[in-house]
Design the sequence.
């Protein structure tokens, strides 16, 4: 940082100053976070403990659940604590840390969704070669690549944003430390930083969306060639959950980050941010479990064992 008189903390404006609304938001966000925690960690636990789910698709799904829990945890606890205590301040270092982990996890999710699309393409288009193509080593390489790109991307964006000077107003018009409100707050020229964000996010999203598009193009061609209606239905059912998650995730990210700063409305951005930082991580376990017989079966087995244990105790 160039100026030693720059701010050492930020004040997060949040979503509302009305005490009654804050109580309502605290209860709502606490419930959402609880469901996110139970849903994602429960999904991971079931996949790890049930040997029937030890396949590449469920390995990716367990990692997706951990990533969803990760980027929700980077934001939600601080927001809900602010509603409860009224303390909206966050130190410069904590702001940078929150931003880093949020960007890291959300980028990992972006590449992970692309890897899952490739996995589905291999399973539907080349079922006889699937086990040979998607070995444990191949899955580990894909997951390592997703994590490496995610944390590298976080380093780039964190350095890019926090190299700027924040020497005037330190009130962030948002409920967490995100790029658009921080860029708007900077007292130095943020044009280069905006361009870096635009091109890096654009490249990451374009690459991931291209992989997903090509994968599903091959999937749909393969499905159309299937003679069995049951086979078509099974293939569509397998891909529907992933397509739903992809549409929700990329639609929100593109809306947030691939528009010029002059087009940003902070009110609209806040609502979109609530959706992708809190709602999407809560929805993903539901989207995948409700449409997946194996996952539903694993949860039913777990519930049955829990009931039996309780009955045995009493």
Sequence:
């Amino acid at each position: 940082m160039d100026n030693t008189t720059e701010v050492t903390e930020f004040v997060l404006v949040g979503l509302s100053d009305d005490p009654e609304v804050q109580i309502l938001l605290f209860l709502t966000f606490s419930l959402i976070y609880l469901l996110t925690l139970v849903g994602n960690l429960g999904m991971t636990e079931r996949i790890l403990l049930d040997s029937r789910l030890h396949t590449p698709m469920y390995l990716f799904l367990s990692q997706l659940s951990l990533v969803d829990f990760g980027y929700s945890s980077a934001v939600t606890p601080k927001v809900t604590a602010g509603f409860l205590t009224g303390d909206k301040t966050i130190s410069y270092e904590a702001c940078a840390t929150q931003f880093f982990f949020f960007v890291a996890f959300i980028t990992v999710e972006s590449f992970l969704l692309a890897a899952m699309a490739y996995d589905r393409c291999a399973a539907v288009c080349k079922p006889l070669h699937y086990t040979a193509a998607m070995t444990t080593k191949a899955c580990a390489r894909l997951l390592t690549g997703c994590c490496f790109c995610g944390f590298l991307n976080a380093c780039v964006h964190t350095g890019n944003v926090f190299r700027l000077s924040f020497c005037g107003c330190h009130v962030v018009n948002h409920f967490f430390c995100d790029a658009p409100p921080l860029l708007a707050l900077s007292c130095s020229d943020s044009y280069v930083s905006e361009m870096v964000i635009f091109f890096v996010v654009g490249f990451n999203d374009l690459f991931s969306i291209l992989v997903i598009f090509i994968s599903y193009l091959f999937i749909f061609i393969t499905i159309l060639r299937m003679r069995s209606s049951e086979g078509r239905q099974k293939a569509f059912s397998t891909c529907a959950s992933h397509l739903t998650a992809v549409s929700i995730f990329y639609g929100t990210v593109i809306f947030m980050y691939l528009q010029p700063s002059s087009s940003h409305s902070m009110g609209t951005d806040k609502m979109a941010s609530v959706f992708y930082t809190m709602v999407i991580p809560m929805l993903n376990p539901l989207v995948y479990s409700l449409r997946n017989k194996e996952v539903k079966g694993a949860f039913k087995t777990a519930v049955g064992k829990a009931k039996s244990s309780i009955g045995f105790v009493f």
Notes: The mean pLDDT is 84. The chain is about 75% helix and 5% strand. The CA atoms of residues 46 and 298 lie 7 Å apart. The longest strand covers residues 9-12.
